[in-house]
TrEMBL record, chain A:
A GO-annotated cellular component: cytosol
Family note: Belongs to the eIF-2B alpha/beta/delta subunits family.
Residue ranges, annotated region (Disordered): 145-172
Coiled-coil residue spans: none
Name of protein: Translation initiation factor eIF2B subunit beta
Complex formation: Component of the translation initiation factor 2B (eIF2B) complex which is a heterodecamer of two sets of five different subunits: alpha, beta, gamma, delta and epsilon. Subunits alpha, beta and delta comprise a regulatory subcomplex and subunits epsilon and gamma comprise a catalytic subcomplex. Within the complex, the hexameric regulatory complex resides at the center, with the two heterodimeric catalytic subcomplexes bound on opposite sides.
Taxonomic placement: Eukaryota, Viridiplantae, Streptophyta, Embryophyta, Tracheophyta
Localization, UniProt: Cytoplasm, Cytosol
Domain of life assignment: Eukaryota
Keyword Electron transport applies: no
GO molecular function term, any single one: translation initiation factor activity
Keywords: Cytoplasm, Initiation factor, Protein biosynthesis
InterPro entries: eIF2B_beta_subunit, IF-2B-related, IF_2B-like_C, NagB/RpiA_transferase-like
From TrEMBL, chain B:
Pfam families for the chain: IF-2B
Name of the protein this chain belongs to: Translation initiation factor eIF2B subunit beta
UniProt record similarity statement: Belongs to the eIF-2B alpha/beta/delta subunits family.
Top-level taxonomy: Eukaryota, Viridiplantae, Streptophyta, Embryophyta, Tracheophyta
Taxonomic superkingdom: Eukaryota
Amino acid sequence: MPDVQSTVLEFVNKLRKRKIEGSQATAKCTAELLRSVISQQRVPHANQASALIDAVKAVGEQLVAANPVELAVGNVVRRVLHIIREEDLSLATAAMAGLDLLDASDDEEDGNSKGVGYSPMSAAVVAAAARSTLRPPSLQTLLEGTPESAAVPYTSSSGADSESKTADKSSITRKLKHDVIEGVNHLILEISGCHDQIAEQAIEHIHQNEVILTLGSSRTVLEFLCAAKEKKRSFRVFVAEGAPRYQGHLLAKELVARGLQTTVITDSAVFAMISRVNMVIIGAHAVMANGGVIGPVGVNMAALAAKKHAVPFVVLAGSHKLCPLYPHNPEVLLNELRSPSELLDFGEFSDCLDFGTGSGSPLLQVVNPSFDYVPPNLVSLFITDTGGHNPSYMYRLIADYYSADDLVM
Amino acid sequence: MPDVQSMVLEFVNKLRKRKIEGSQATARCTVELLKSVVSHHRLPRANQASALIDAVRGVGAQLVAANPVELAVGNVVRRVLHIIREEDLSLATAAVSELDFNGEGMSAAVVAAAARSTLRPPSLQTLLEGTTESATVPYTFSSGVDSESKTADKSSITQKLKDDVRGGIDQLIKDITDCHEQIAEQAIEHIHQNEVILTLGNSRTVLEFLCAAKEKKRSFRVFVAEGAPRYQGHVLAKELVARGLQTTVITDSAVFAMISRVNMVIIGAHAVMANGGVIGPVGVNMAALAAKKHAVPFVVLAGSHKLCPLYPHNPEVLLNELRSPCELLDFGEFSDCLDSGSPLVQVVNPTFDYVPPSLVSLVITDTGGHNPSYMYRLIADYYSADDLVM
């Protein structure tokens, strides 16, 4: 316990000091931390799921408070909570199915733990459980379920054993933890593999002799473009440098290293070049529940330019970036202001920026935001690891990944 | 006189039967006809200008009535009327300055102004820099002002007016004939390397424009929309290929599909109205809407004889002409549907399309490239307000 506590404190410190760069790394570390929290948590005999949920929530609050602008932290915490609820529900269903099995057949094939074919209800449930993996349920599976599965809206591959309710309680407890940790492992795999999943779809979107525009530096975009390159599509890329951090220069270097024809342009040149661009591809920092996108500063300008010239605006986002909150939610800090030193040299401007002068308000104000918000009507397509979606479909993905009870932590 | 009358009747017949193809040819023939009308007309001693104007107007009304949809006819008639008024005014001014010659330097300024400008439409600058005297001479003219006294031979003044008018008409003919070259000269400023141009139908102005850019070693490719039902686009495509341009023929319905990859749309106009609206071959409105949606510049080429001083809402302007349904449907197959009191199949086969000025990015005339909202200014230069109703 103390071990976990110190780990948590250490991670909170790292988050507060912004030592971890990037959503993917943050999400992975958060998931791993929560996994150890879960495995170390001692759960009571009854209501073990709520105990787990409370523990995870407590840790999650600390993490979110440490870095509220990194929405991936909150996303992962809510994913884990959703996993706990799911597993709990499926275990309860399996237990119920086990009871039904005992009721229906007292002296027939009691070795048959699956109970296939006895009562249609349990069979359907078990079949459904066995069939789907920890994948978000599609509308189809929901609709084709039996009345029984109406009580089981979320199925999971927990390997439902039809143990009777009188089975060892500690084994059930272990089962829940075990399933939850499996689920979290799966989540970590998903987070790590999101680049590959998204890059697989590149070939459908990038065609021969196209001109792509991107802004800043996103690893997802890099992998996406290189995947298309590997499939022998020849295209050229315009990279807007993305002042004041000039991350675009890094991306351009890497693209050139992989053999792509690249041109670096200033942010102000985006509107001038947009008439010759066939598609704009951006990596998102976070995607909100309404389909709005939080991205590096400058993407809203690119989105407006693209809208004006009817150029498709494509946003790449791993599933850990899907945030169930809306932009107007007070919890969501849409932006973070960084140090003015990135823009102005303190040495030169110290007299303007100084508060020491009599009036107390400097003549020169410097605003250095990190992020930009792009409203959903400017976005043409979202590409996540599950495929390409309309911004208006985001609510559906979010319903698949998160529970409504976890929105307020 | 009877000679002229028979010529007029013959031309009216040709117009009515649509025997003359194209605005440029029509405009040229009209101008030449009006030139002979002016030459043969016997002028009275006084008010010879009004006599000329009435004569030209009489003939002009017949011509316009013969083919009301060919707006170039009316344009040219109004141009000639404007020339007559101009020449008359400049001669009157020369006479007035004759009287004042012994006076102040005002006449010198007037004479200097007259000698300086040619038969070019007056610019805002010359209007503003004129002296108080030239306030009464809004249009200056290089009529070769001789400082003859007012007591000079009246017949020579009559002769002078006719000569000046004929000179003006010759200049007009030259303008009409050279319009393709003048417009094509500007091609190099608008077409750049590696561009994709879209055009629709067949326009000689567009052909010359594109070839001029090709000669200046710009490499670009052209999409030609075929322009059903006459498929004039096929003709244009053949000619472009003959001159070595990379061409692709597409159907009219493919315009919106291709427009995202097009850098500029270039169209030849049938007529440009006073509000900047464009009358073009059927299908250009669709291309203009597609271009607007994708923020592609929509460029219209029009010789100055196509600038019409009327507005599209003017009842005199027939925006369109419906052609025979046989271009669309084979009469043999469809005769049962098309026949009878109220046929179930209606066929509409318009010749022209109207493009509102909000969709047009640029109008290139022989004087240069202009905004559609600048058209009123060119029209004020070329036409007189008194001639709008004939």
